[in-house]
Amino acid sequence: MAIAGAPVVALSFASGGGYPTAWNLLTISMVVTGTAVALVRRPSLGRYELAAIGLLVALTSYSALSYAWSADPPATAAEAQRWLALTATLACLALTARSGGHRAVGAGVAGAAMAVCSYALATRLLPDLVSTPHASGVNRLYEPIGYWNGLGELAAIGIVLSLGLEAQASVALDPGAAPEHGAYASSEIADTLARLPAPSLISHLTSLAAATLG
């Protein structure tokens, strides 16, 4: 969980990670972590993971090669750095999911999203305790990412992951309750929400509030 959630929190508090230094640090941390997981756990990736990683490697390589004919070499180099960070992150999370389970990865990202959204709400609800620079004319939640749409997207990801994990847990407890083809109707989702424990429900509401106010 920590391997999946830590990058989300770290990048969020680094102004959304929208600059090359953050990408480089992310790449290094993901390569080191992924290598450690591979050496200790020795997970075996499936063809879908390998295909996804291979496509990102190809895209990263093409982006780096385009430096030779680019009209803006510095911008091209920055884009190659960003693609490399995404590739390293995907590879690390794929190895982690294979060794520790995909639920742990999903829970880590969902928990990180809740933590970031909770901080964002605290800047509005507890301004004396959580001070943040206020952008002139902007009455929206945007910290710590620095952009309200980015915060809303992270909140949406957290909500979807949380609902998916809860729904999957419900199926595991009661396999006969799953509808055909594995598709959940809106009534099933509502029933899942109604049976959520308090911490999970708070997590959903926090992310939903951040997405709405953002």
Spell out the key features of this protein:
72% helix; 2 domains; mainly alpha; globular; 0% strand; 214 residues; 8 helices
Summarize this entry quickly.
This protein is mostly helical and 214 residues long.
Report on this model:
It is a single chain. This protein has 214 residues and is mainly α. It has helices at 2-12, 20-41, 47-65, 73-100, 102-125, 148-173, 186-194, 198-213. It is globular. Residues 181-186 and 196-201 have low confidence and may be disordered.
Topology, please?
Elements: H1 2-12, H2 20-41, H3 47-65, H4 73-100, H5 102-125, H6 148-173, H7 186-194, H8 198-213
Query: What is the global morphology?
Result: globular
Strand segment tally: 0
Q: Stretches where pLDDT falls below 50 for ≥5 residues? A: 181-186, 196-201
Rg, Å, rounded = 19 Å
Mean pLDDT over the full residue set: 81
The number of domains is: 2
Percentage of helical residues? over 70%
Query: What kind of oligomer do you see?
Result: single chain
**Which structural class is indicated by helix and strand composition?**
mainly alpha
The ordered H/E elements are HHHHHHHH
The number of helical runs is 8
**Major sheet characteristics:** none
Give the end-to-end Cα distance, rounded to a whole number of Å. Answer: 26 Å
